[in-house]
Amino acid sequence: MSNEILPQTDLTFLPATADLTTLRQYLLDLFCRLAYKEGDFVLSSGQRSSYYINGKQVTLHPEGALAIGRILLSLLPMDTQAVAGLTLGADPIVTAVSVISAYEKRGLPALIIRKEAKGHGTKAYIEGPDLPTGAKVVVLEDVVTTGQSALKAVERLRDAGYSVDEVISLVDRQQGGAELYQSEGLKFQAVFTIEDLQQQYSQIK
Fold first, then answer.
1. What percent of the chain has pLDDT over 90?
2. Any binding-site annotation on 139?
3. Is 106 assigned a ligand-binding role in the annotation?
4. Is 61 annotated as a binding residue?
5. Least crowded by CB within 10 Å, which of 25, 128, 193, 204?
């Protein structure tokens, strides 16, 4: 357990009412204090890296989830009908956005994409409310490296008859993900790049 303590609730800051610029800076600080680590790591892609980003330290943090929900909702096209992502990393993200969307009277369902089909019952790849064929869904991700995880979610959703043309990530490691999405005809945007995190981290470490 880290000795780097960040209060569970900072009574001087209200992520539910802060403006989006302030909220973005707050979320960046959370990522640098809780999720970003430097060292020698092996990523899920098999690549070695001098740093690691454990996004769940922020996406499962109460104020972090609230900030994520508000920021990502603000980035979604107004004709978005649902948000989705590949389990496990995207689970708290799509949930946060869906909950915040209810407060904003947009009411966006959350869909969770399994890595393998459920072995019983409906044997479905996609968990969540059934949507009309052609419903516009945006895929959300915590950290994009090669882009394969979100692309798998896109493929599952398209196979189910949904329309998917955009991926939004909290952090882009800038290691090929954006180029992969472009080659697949997908729009891509990230809240932060790895340069954003490293610059902020160098100021607070």
1. 83
2. no
3. no
4. no
5. 204
Q: How confident is the model at residue 171 (pLDDT cuts 50, 70, 90)?
A: very high
Residue 149 included in any domain: yes
CATH, residue 35: 3.40.50.2020
pTM, to two decimals: 0.91
pLDDT in tens, 36-62: 999 999 887 778 899 999 999 999 999
Q: Name the DSSP letter for residue 180.
A: H
Tell whether 118 is in a known binding site: yes
Flag whether 71 is in a domain. Answer: yes
Q: Judge contact between 33 and 6, C-beta under 8 A.
A: yes
Residue numbers of the domain that contains 97: 20-204
Instruction: Indicate the average pLDDT of the chain.
Output: 91
Q: Is 147 annotated as a binding residue?
A: yes
- What's the full length of the chain, in residues? 205
User: Is 142 within any annotated ligand binding site?
Assistant: yes
145 is in an annotated binding site: yes
Please state the domain count of the chain.
Answer: 1
Q: 142: left (phi > 0), else alpha (psi -120 to 50), else beta? A: alpha
pLDDT at 11: 47
